[in-house]
Design brief:
The complex is a heterodimer of chains A (83) and B (396). Chain A is α+β, with helices and mostly antiparallel strands and 83 residues long. Chain A has a single domain, classed as TusA-like domain (Translation Initiation Factor IF3, 2-Layer Sandwich). In chain A, 30% of the residues lie in helices and 30% in strands. The relative contact order of chain B is 0.20. Chain B is built from 16 helices and no strands. In chain B, helix 6 packs across helix 11 and helix 8 packs antiparallel against helix 9. Chain B has 396 residues and is mostly helical. The radius of gyration of chain B is 21 Å and the shape is globular. Classes of the chains: A alpha+beta (83), B mainly alpha (396). Chains A and B meet through helix 2 and helix 3 of A and helix 7 of B.
């Protein structure tokens, strides 16, 4: 599963490192609104709260949360597919 | 395959418990129940749970030490609310260390300004409302003080205004991400190995703190330190955030935190009704929230502040324990502003015009107060559930 996530190619990348709740979620929602159906958004974040918020939000409004991956450098990569 | 030796079996079970306690996030609903239980313990042990008065004591000390005030405040380590707050902070810090989630976390410059503004708004709002999201809202409703319901409405309005600002900011003042490049791991000590031990040490020190207070004939304070510790642990492990109950229905439509807070309040309220109706504690204890002007306007101002800061009075403390430097700014601004605004309200006499504390059962009797309390909370949940489907109140 980890390998699958590692191989995902994102169409858009959103960097939220340093931002805390609720900004990563707000920015994610904003960018998803303008993405095409089927496109994948990668969110890079460092707020531990995002690990709870983004998977929950990622499966709403017809979107699909594909998974998350902790990077050894100290941040997390989240993947959401636009529905 | 499980271990068959006694020691092996114990080790296996401890590892499972450790993983369940400190690796996985706790369900929010469980935290809601546990927090209500802790709030009732604090109520029985001492008086209804609050947080802002602890912030204020530190603000009072700031003004005393800078010579702006000549009234010497109570020593922080003898102030009951400071002690609960200290326990909450240390409990969250211990939890963050044990789960290897502690890190000094920097934020973009603009976020520090928002943290400052958020602290100022929350400090002022809590001074007007006679408490923060805990003392002015959660405990107030839990002990049947009508001001709590007025602050609840105010928090909803404030969350709406605060969210409107965040949306405006996202369009007009976009911020660049801040990334702390990890230092080279070569020849560098790996703190993650000792973090869990440091966390365990903090837990042990707090337990020792209870015995020290008890030895000094201050068992009440020792108990409050311990209850605060448990609340900090619960809040950090579940990432329990009161702000989400007001913000998420407007932002994503999510209703989870609304029903969790409503359920938690019902448990707290039922417990408090048992305590008060039976006079285990005086029935008007904790009923001082200025209904309605102070509670409502304070709620609005506090609500804006919690959106700007990204944390309320309680989540500022537990997030501080996780290393968020932005919330250190919020904490200081909250403490100083709360002390200053309350002092100004008292000196100007304005505090008498904000309203008075009203005990709901005094007006309508216990027989109506309890069903009224339940109906309001159930109504809140139903509106949130309907909104989750219809997105009627989602503004983004």
């Amino acid at each position: 599963m980890t390998t699958d996530i590692e191989n995902i190619k994102a169409d858009e990348i959103l960097d939220t490192r340093g931002l805390t709740c609720p900004m990563p979620l707000l920015k994610t929602k904003k960018i998803l609104k303008v993405m095409n159906a089927g496109a994948v958004l990668e969110i890079i974040g460092s707020d531990p709260g995002s690990k709870k918020d983004l998977p929950e939000f990622g499966n709403k409004q017809g979107n699909q949360f594909l998974g998350m991956l902790d990077d050894p450098a100290g941040y997390t990569r989240f993947f959401i597919k636009r529905g | 395959m499980g271990s068959e030796t006694f020691c092996g079996s114990i080790k296996e079970e401890l590892n499972k418990a450790y993983s369940g306690f400190f690796k996985e996030n706790w369900p929010t609903w469980l935290a809601g129940i546990l927090i209500a239980f802790m709030a009732l313990m604090i109520f029985l042990w001492s008086s209804p749970w609050g947080i802002a008065a602890g912030y204020r004591n530190l603000g009072d000390w700031f003004f005393f030490l800078t010579g702006a005030s000549c009234i010497k405040p109570v020593a922080p380590l003898l102030h009951p609310v400071v002690i609960v707050n200290l326990g909450l902070f240390l409990g969250a810090l211990a939890s963050a260390l044990i789960s290897n989630q502690f890190k000094i976390r920097r934020a973009p410059a603009m976020e520090y300004l928002k943290g400052l503004a958020g602290g100022i708004f929350m400090g002022a709002g809590a001074a007007l409302a006679g408490g923060c999201n805990v003392g002015g809202f959660y405990s107030a409703i839990g002990v049947f003080s009508i001001g709590g319901f007025a602050m609840m409405i105010g928090l909803g309005i404030g969350a709406y205004l605060g969210l409107k600002y965040l949306l405006w900011e996202m369009e007009h003042l976009p911020q660049k991400a801040v990334f702390q490049q990890p230092e080279s791991q070569k020849d560098k000590f790996d703190w993650s190995i000792i973090q869990p031990y440091l966390g365990g040490l903090i837990l042990l020190l707090i337990v020792a703190g209870f015995y020290i207070y008890s030895f000094l004939d201050k068992t009440e304070l020792g108990g409050l330190l311990f209850f605060g510790l448990l609340i900090g642990l619960i809040m950090h492990r579940s990432r329990f955030c009161f702000v989400r109950a007001f913000r998420c229905p407007l932002m994503t439509g999510e209703s989870e935190m609304v029903w969790v807070v409503a359920m938690s309040l019902m448990i707290y309220g039922f417990g408090s009704a048992v305590i008060k109706w039976n006079y285990l504690q005086p029935d008007t204890m904790g009923v001082y929230h200025p209904f309605w002007i102070g509670s409502l306007t304070g709620g609005v101002i506090f609500g804006i502040g919690m959106l700007l800061a990204g944390g309320c009075a309680s989540s500022t403390l537990w997030r501080l324990g996780e290393g968020h430097t932005k919330l250190a700014v919020t904490f200081i601004a909250f403490a100083i502003t709360n002390s200053l605004v309350l002092s100004l309200l008292k000196k100007s006499g304005l505090i008498d015009k904000l309203g008075t504390g009203i005990f709901l059962p005094d007006i309508v009797s216990w027989y109506i107060a309890v069903p009224f309390f339940v109906l309001i909370l159930i109504g809140w949940v139903f509106i949130a559930l309907w909104n989750e489907k219809s997105e009627k109140f989602v503004i983004f």
